[in-house]
Design the sequence.
């Protein structure tokens, strides 16, 4: 449990109100109070985990299968063309409790892919070096 007050833990425990769209044993979903578009939902694990890498393996399945279902529901309820599903880990994470953003999308809605500039690799060697570094790190995780 968090050592400091956590807004999302407070919502999960029913001590802070939210517009809850789903309430299941291991996860909870609710409307973001500052949405990118109406219908923007946040999906959280009920237990406090700051980032994705902190989430125990047995909670990964429930979180992501529910994210899949919630993305379908958001798209259906809003007659959206699609959805944007994202997680911030620390950087740009306004509440330090793991949460999945599920944002309804429409063609020409003004969002341009990611919200930041894209980087070009200097060439094949840089890509190969990074591929090898990540593969090596992954093998030890």
Sequence:
């Amino acid at each position: 449990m968090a050592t400091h007050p956590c807004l999302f833990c407070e919502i999960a425990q029913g001590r802070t109100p939210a517009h809850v769209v789903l309430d299941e044993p291991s996860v909870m979903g609710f409307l973001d109070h500052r949405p990118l578009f109406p219908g923007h939902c946040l999906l959280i694990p009920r237990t406090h985990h700051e980032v994705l890498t902190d989430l125990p393996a047995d909670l990964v399945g429930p979180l992501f299968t529910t994210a899949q279902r919630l993305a379908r529901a958001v798209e259906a309820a809003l007659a959206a063309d699609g959805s944007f599903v994202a997680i911030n880990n620390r950087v740009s994470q306004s509440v330090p409790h793991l949460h999945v953003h599920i944002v309804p999308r429409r063609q020409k809605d003004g969002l341009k892919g990611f919200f930041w500039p894209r980087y070009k690799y200097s060439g094949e060697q840089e890509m190969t070096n990074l591929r090898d570094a990540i593969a090596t790190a992954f093998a030890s995780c």
